[in-house]
Model the fold of this input.
Amino acid sequence: MKLLILLVFITSCSSNYTRTQSSDYVVTTWKIFDKVYTDNWSIKELISTLGHTKEKYTHPQKKHSIAWLYRDKKTNFQEWSFEINKEKKIINVLYHPNESYRDEFTIEKMINHWKDLNCKHKQKQELSPGLVKTIKYIECNNGSHVIRYNRYNEVESVSVKNSKY
Done:
């Protein structure tokens, strides 16, 4: 009987810890979006929030900036990408919500969070040899916030540009 009570106690504590971690992650993600858009967010603040990155990428056509990539620790899929300019300020962030947080970053929740930014549903076609793909997205504030979603209306990526660049 004591063993059963102990197991129930341990299980309830660990699930509460997971919920707290999840809630902190969601709050941090929204703060990142809002700070990148409104502030001159620096590398120092990024490191204090997400830590150092192991991956840095320089695009051949964008010599004025560098991208820092962060991967999900469990799946190793890319989760975050930050574009950083020469002044070491973050000018763009791209987020790919993983399966664990897909319910936290739905189209409805994102539009509700950015309700003052004049969000509009849009679509465009991308052409490549042998393939025509319709891309569905929501554009807010004249393109400073872009939410791409799939045919199941699941958010695939969120892009936020700094308002000063």
